Structure formats: C-alpha cells, structure tokens
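Below is how a single chain appears once it has passed through the pipeline. First comes the sequence as given, then the structure the pipeline wrote out for it. We keep one example in the README because the format questions we get most often are answered faster by looking than by reading.
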Amino acid sequence: MSVTPIEILATALFALAVLHTFSVPVFARLAHRNGPHAGIWHLLSEVEAVFGVWAFVLIVGMAALAGPSSAIEYLDTRNFTEPLFVFAIMVVAASRPIIDLVGWLVRVISHALPMPRELSTFFVTLSVVPLAGSLVTEPAAMTLAALLLRRAYFSVPGQTGFKYLTLGVLFVNVSIGGVITAYAAPPVLMVAGTFGWDTAYMATHFGWRAAIAVFLNATVLTFVCRKALLAGEVGRQHGAAETNESRPAVPWPFIAIHVAFLVAVVLTAHHPAVFLGLLMLFIGFCEAYKRHQSRLMIKEGLMVGFFLAGLVVLGGLQRWWLQDLLGGLSPMVLFWGSAALTAITDNAALTYLGSLVEGTSDIWRYMLVAGAVSGGGLTVIANAPNPAGFAILKGTFPDGAISAGRLLLAALAPTLVAACLFLLPV
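Resulting structure:
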C-alpha cells in the first residue's frame, strides 16, 4: 500500500503531539516565570490543547497540499461522537447533586468495611467508583472519582508522590473497570459489534479479571499510604465523601432529576443530537435552581472534548502503519504490543484498527483488547476518560501541570497487575 504525503505529515505531527504531552511541565515552568511570552507558554502547557493545536496544523497542511475542499471533506468523515459525549457526561456527572449522591454512597459502603474510615473511603473511591464505570460509562466514573479525590485528598498542598501514585492507580482502574459490560469502555465499544461480544461475554472473559485487578490495585495503594491516610497528612480527616457543610443539603427530588439526566445521557451515548439536546436542557435546569448547584464544568469539558477531537483528527491517518503492524503480531506479542502502543495512541483507536484485520482468531481478538485496556492508564492519551481526570486534578500538582513521565512510572505497577490478571488462562 502506497503512503501519501498527507499520511506522512499526519504521523510526524502525531509524534510531535506525543512528545509535546511529555514536555508540558517544561512549558508550565516557563509560563510561571511571567516573562513577555508567558501567555504562549501557558497555552502550550495546557495538555488538553495539545492534540487540538497539532490537529489544526494538520488541517492547514492538508489544505496546502490537497486543497481546502479535501481538508474539509476529511473533517466531515471523522466521527466526533466520543469527544462530544465525554464533554456532555463530564458536565452532568460533575454537578453538585450527583457528587453529593456518590459521596453518600461511598460513605455508606465505607462504613460497612472492617477498616478505619480514613482507609475505607480512599479504598472505595479507587475501587468501587471505577468499577461503576461499567454501568455509567468510564468517562462518568473518571469524573466522579477525580472530583472526590480532589475534594478530599488532592486539595492539600504538597504530597506530590502520593498524588502521582493515586493518579496512576485511578487511570488504570478506570481503564479496566469499564470492561464488565459491552458499552461502557471505549476500546470495547469500538469492537463489540464486529467481534460479536455482548455483556455476558465481557463479564465472563474480562469482567472478573478486571474486578480482581481493580481491588488489588486499590488495596496495595491503600496499604502503602496507610500511615499518611490515618495521620491525615494527605487529605481531610473524614475522607473522600465529605460534603460542603457550609451549604444546605440538596433535596432528594433534585438529586433524582440529575440522576435521570445522567442515565438519559448514558443511554443516548451513540446519538449526539439527543444527548447534546439533553445537555442543553440540563444546563437550563441548573440555571433555574442555582442554589442547589456548584459551578458547572463547562470550560473543563470543552477543553477535554477539544483534546479528544484533535486525537480523532490526527489518529484517523495512522492506519497506514498501525493496522499492518497489529496484523503481523502473534497473540502474546500482540498483548504486550497493544499495551505499549496504547501509551502513544488512544486505545479505542487501537482496537478499532485491530478489528479491521481480517482472519483473526478469538484469542488474537482477546489479546488485542486485553492489552489495550491494560495499558489505558499509562498516559493521558491512552484512554478517552484520562483527559477528564487530568483536567480536574492538574491544578493540585506543582505548577498546575502533571508530568507525563512520572505518571507513566506511577501507572506501571498497577498496569502489570492488570496484565497478569488478563493473561490468566481464558
């Protein structure tokens, strides 16, 4: 298959975008010096803008090489449903009534566990909430878990090592926590129809392995951080479910209405016109009852959507090398290869390209998806929900930036735990 100049340009820009994500802390430090170019350094330090900016460069390059009509035609053929859905679900899931409800549920579950509440709430936030992603989708689970962590643990200055370890476990657990069903995890959703996988298949082949890995990762991290958690050094004394005592509780009817909006958005995830219409109604309802709301995360949601849209544009022209590479790998090599590749490309795009390879066996397909979800916590671009968690938590890190290298290191151990569970005999 011949390679076009546009495909070469797209791959070069994709590589630059990946390098850019690893360089974000450097730009953040330059921005904090408040020099004459602080504004542009600040823009370049916003990881949510990285792929959108380089995607814009690609479109300009396409227009120059093949004409504006070709560039517009390429954009028209891209599917932006996932970026739009992540934006919508972030705004709805991050509303105060939903967060208060989830906080209450975390409190109830935590009280039932035979361990100190300072430990149990942290454990539940990093295990039960990510597993709930199999019901409410991974982007919603990421949003909820990240907000609970920011409220109770990440708001304390310092403790950078603790924050990176927690972020690594969160990203990995969310990536594997949504595979119990066939619709919640983006890399599963992309291939479920083609491979003939339903929720029963996912639960029996992926789900129990993922659940064990999630609980193991959360247990080990809770044990490692137990002294700091018990001493209150890394968060508020009462854990992740603490609510804002200065405001009256949200009435249950309003919580029920917000839950109804959340469920409706999840059920219409494949229909942008519907869930965006629901989002407009939701924003209007929130404006009508501001006294029961905190600030909606519209800006953060838009930035995350911009990031994912850029990934869609740049990733759409990587098929020329990625699909052939995947097709030539044996199942075991494919597992580790897809886990590694997903660190530099979205795992949903990776599984989609793998689904286009003809004549694959059942074990080959399993290894493709298992490797992709195992590596989904290694970088911010590895899994679609990761930019949401990144946007919510980055302000609690030094210079307001998260080091891609330190995140990679923090996610390695929980990634290996997930990989070992998925490699158990099928």
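Residues 5-76 form one domain.

See the next section for the split statistics.
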